[in-house]
Amino acid sequence: MKTKLRSWIGRLPYVGRERPPVVPVIRLHGTIGAAGGPLQRGRSLSAQGLASAIDRAFALKQAKAVALSINSPGGSAVQSALIARHIRRKAEEKDKTVLAFIEDVGASGGYWLACAGDEIFADRASIVGSIGVITAGFGFVEAIRKLGVERRVYTAGEEKALLDPFQPEDEDGIARLRAIQQDAHDAFRDMVRERRKDRLKAPEAELFDGRVFSGKRGLAVGLVDAIGSMDDVLRDRYGAKVRMPVVNASKTWWPRRLLGGTGEATALRALDAVLDGLEERALWARYGL
């Protein structure tokens, strides 16, 4: 009887006992893209899709801190900025420390997200940095010429068809694109400067030229604060009994764009999803993954 009573009491939620410390975890895994746009399939990250998860993580009053689990090769600069800004806003409102943990990759937009943390941790072999902006595409001018295809584009506004892939590149269009990229790069650099401050230990010419670093090298140049995993760091700081509940927005397993509609519409959505998948795959492939 005593054994049964002791077992029953052990299942009660911390009756007469001290609650174990809690550090909620926000998973930031995948490419970064606007909701409903390119790259935004089941696994991608957007400010809209993550808003509720971020809010719920910081709403836990008993939380000792909030952890970010990051594994992202980047994507949209705007969405990266919006997500990071939301995290910092909630951290300041709730007076919570944010600890960022980079797994395989925290590069480009993924590193932008890591900068939302008060401290950044990585594995020795993690890939970090890539503080730059890239725009990639294809040119099909020769292909359509060989196929005998005539490209017809009508615009109201001379600059509307910027760098059409079916027309030859023009220097003015390239210059305008580079100006847009420069603005995004400036915003990225400002974020890193603001969040890392005097922890940066290498010249900006090296840090901000788009190169990537291993976690070990990232520690040496100040992009990372320490080498360590989430489990090890949190257990060391908050005790072996620390709880690390994952707080995530619900996601649909099947891409919505593949469901419903006519046969033709469904086929087009399927093709769109395949192209998005290829673009996502290309982002990961840049880092050998």
How are the secondary structure elements laid out?
Elements: H1 2-10, E1 25-29, H2 47-59, E2 66-72, H3 77-94, E3 98-107, H4 109-114, E4 119-122, E5 127-129, H5 141-147, H6 171-196, H7 204-207, E6 212-214, H8 215-221, E7 226-227, H9 230-238, H10 263-285
Parallel strand pairs: 1-2, 2-3, 3-4, 3-5, 4-7
Antiparallel strand pairs: 5-6
Helix pairs in contact: 2-3
Describe what you observe in this structure.
There is one protein chain. 29% of the residues are buried. Strands 1, 2, 3, 4, 5, 6 and 7 form a seven-stranded mixed beta sheet that branches. The protein is 42% helix and 12% strand. The termini are far apart. The protein has a single domain, classed as 2-enoyl-CoA Hydratase, Chain A, domain 1 (Alpha-Beta Complex). With 289 residues, it is of the alpha/beta class. The chain has helices spanning 2-10, 47-59, 77-94, 109-114, 141-147, 171-196, 204-207, 215-221, 230-238, 263-285, and strands at 25-29, 66-72, 98-107, 119-122, 127-129, 212-214, 226-227.
Please give a handful of descriptors for the protein shown:
289 residues; alpha/beta; 2-enoyl-CoA Hydratase, Chain A, domain 1; seven-stranded mixed beta sheet; 7 strands; 42% helix
Largest sheet data? 7 strands, mixed
Helix content: 40-55%
Distance between the termini: 57 Å
Shape: elongated
CATH topology grouping: 2-enoyl-CoA Hydratase, Chain A, domain 1
CATH superfamily: 2-enoyl-CoA Hydratase, Chain A, domain 1
What structural class do the secondary elements suggest?
Answer: alpha/beta
Which CATH class? Answer: Alpha Beta
